[in-house]
Design brief:
75% of the residues lie in helices and 0% in strands. The protein has three helices and no strands. Helix 1 packs parallel to helix 3. The relative contact order is 0.17. It is found in: Vacuole membrane.
């Protein structure tokens, strides 16, 4: 793309940057979950942490697929018609929100586990 239209090179890097942001969501969640690990941990806490990791991972996977498909088509379309750039950015933002949903559900799950008081010791 940069060979044919070097003026659009910086605009066409945006999908790559947005895919990297999705990876950072997963990295942050893995650090937060590993910080709460202990040798003697209740079973429900482990399962909630597994669910939190899976929700972030699977939503990141879906967002990555969406960003990849939209980014590829958008970059090719922007090279032919520069007015498509705004539409590509809007659809990329909607795809990025999928990853944010997974991250926010992780926050809710881990907060509920930290406030949970078991009935049996």
């Amino acid at each position: 793309m940069a060979v044919l239209r070097p003026d659009l090179m910086m605009k066409n890097v945006i999908p790559v940057i947005m895919a990297g942001i999705i990876a950072i969501y997963g990295l942050v969640v893995s650090v937060l979950i590993s910080g709460n690990l202990s040798p003697r941990m209740p079973l429900y806490t482990g399962f909630v942490q597994l669910g939190a990791g899976l929700s972030v991972g699977l939503s990141g996977l879906a967002a990555g697929f969406a960003i990849g498909i939209v980014g590829d088509a958008g970059v090719r379309g922007t090279a032919q018609q520069p007015r498509l750039f705004v539409g590509m950015i809007l659809i990329l933002i909607f795809a990025e929100v999928l990853g944010l949903y997974g991250t926010s559900s992780r926050r809710y799950k881990l907060t509920c586990v930290q406030n949970f008081i078991p009935l049996l010791p």
